[in-house]
Design brief:
about 450 residues; mainly alpha; 2 domains; two-stranded antiparallel sheet; 20 helices; about 80% helix; globular
Length: about 450
């Protein structure tokens, strides 16, 4: 009986394998996926969404809004990440998701009822804050302690150098071409150095709105062009630094920031229950930041960052919360980033303001930001024993690019992918630092 059962099992497996092979031969597109979904099935989901949108039968509230944001956001993201020039220099799917949705609103392709629903979901519905809470909590608590112990506080000196250098050079160039110091630093420098869209420009627009008085849409429309241009210059200058390192070998560690450092990324087993803990932690820390914000003259995001960082350094948070926060952040970032960017384009991006911002003076000032970041990070990096080229790439350019996708593009252009752990420090903790600085600097410049 056992032999017979084994033969039946093997036969069943063979039939299954042959069936799968025939299906794959009949459907050559079966390996193409959008949102981790076979393209034909994603197309079916998209068709349901579009028909419901344009016939006025889309469910209201969270269900309809999130469905539209995921489907159209993923379509724009998929196209942008596969369009040669856009994916290499302009931020790829992130930029197309923002501007694609903004154009749909601008041209009337997106029904007015959908625009209103998505805007309400992003703003009064709290989806933006929900995303940011997961990002801040998980990115800080998920940092690898081995990197922090090895590099220590020394790494933050070139990061500060990058920020100071960027502000100084942008202030000088900006004043020469007609910008005020306030515009050169607040509107151009800080968002470029702030860790991309989700970690930088989006929460920064909220901070600016509350402290300066205009709507978040006013600021986001001015911050997005700075991010896109800064990302372009960061990638181009990364390849230039690679050439400089080859011409002057004493300035470069050829991919090593410090001598003798090797980092192996630990394997992590994902757990649905831990993600639930991470969700709880993100919501609780966000609420605590808002609670203390009623008494402390800092933005709740800044308070939240300080509290989480202090708890991480003090090592008082249990491992299940650390793992859960990191896993929940990765779930949110992996599945809802393009949806969020689509919502940003609808609710916060005014194409007229964006077009008016793209002037020669603006472009020169953005270039000054990125060049200043290179100079500041390289000089102060050398002071603490880092190779100047590697310090300029990681603490400078990886602060000035568009977060995670920008890190990959910059390190690829510089031919130094092994520096990714340091790039992540710049994008995560560096971005959080800029949010904190923006809350402190605004009162000094207004």
């Amino acid at each position: 009986m056992e032999v017979r059962g084994l033969l039946m099992e093997q036969t069943a497996k063979k039939i299954s394998f042959e069936t799968d092979t025939k299906v794959n031969q009949l459907d050559p597109k079966s390996k193409i996926t959008v949102f981790n979904t076979p393209v034909l099935w994603f197309g079916l989901f998209a068709a349901i969404t579009l028909v419901s949108m344009y016939t006025g039968n889309l469910p209201g509230g969270m269900i309809g809004s999130l469905l539209v944001m995921i489907v159209l956001g993923e379509v724009f993201g998929w196209i942008g990440d596969r369009t040669p020039i856009m994916k290499t220099f302009l931020g790829g799917g992130a930029i197309l998701a923002i501007f694609g949705s903004a154009y749909m609103v601008y041209s009337g392709l997106l029904p007015e009822s959908i625009t209103t629903s998505v805007t309400d979901f992003m703003q009064t519905g709290g989806f933006l804050d929900f995303y940011i809470a997961a990002l801040i909590t998980g990115s800080i608590l998920g940092m690898n302690s081995k990197i922090l112990v090895k590099v220590g506080l020394r790494y933050f000196l070139p990061i500060f150098g990058a920020v100071i250098g960027a502000m100084i050079l942008a202030g000088i160039i900006g004043s020469l071409v007609g910008f005020t110091l306030q515009d050169a630093i607040l509107v151009i420098t800080l968002p470029i150095m702030g860790g991309g869209m989700g970690a930088g420009a989006v929460p920064m627009s909220q901070i600016y709105s509350e402290m300066l008085g205009n709507e978040p849409s006013y600021y986001i429309s001015m911050l997005v062009p700075a991010l896109a241009l800064g990302n372009v210059f960061a990638i181009v200058l990364a390849s230039v630094l690679d050439m400089v390192g080859k011409k002057f070998p004493s300035l470069s560690g050829d991919g090593q920031l410090v001598k003798g450092f090797k980092y192996e990324k630990p394997q992590q087993k994902y757990d649905i229950k831990k993600m639930g803990v991470g969700l709880l932690a993100a919501l609780a820390f966000f609420t605590l930041g808002n609670l203390l914000g009623a008494f402390i003259p800092l933005h709740p995001y800044a308070i939240m960052i300080i509290l989480i960082a202090l708890m991480k350094v003090a090592n008082i948070i249990p491992p299940i919360v650390l793992d859960g926060a990191s896993q929940w952040y990765q779930f949110v970032a992996s599945n809802w980033t393009f949806a969020l960017l689509f919502g940003i384009g609808v609710a916060y991006t005014d194409l007229n303001t964006v077009i008016e911002a793209l002037t020669l003076q603006y472009i020169l000032t953005v270039f000054g930001v990125v060049l200043g970041a290179i100079i500041g990070a390289g000089l102060l990096g050398k002071l603490v024993g880092f190779y100047p080229i590697e310090a300029a790439i990681t603490a400078g350019l990886c602060m000035a690019n568009m977060g995670g996708t920008g890190d990959v593009a910059v390190l690829s252009a510089a031919k130094r992918m092994e520096l990714m752990p340091f790039a992540q420090i710049s994008s995560r903790l560096g971005g959080a630092l800029i949010l904190l600085l923006s809350g402190l600097i605004i009162p000094l410049l207004v």
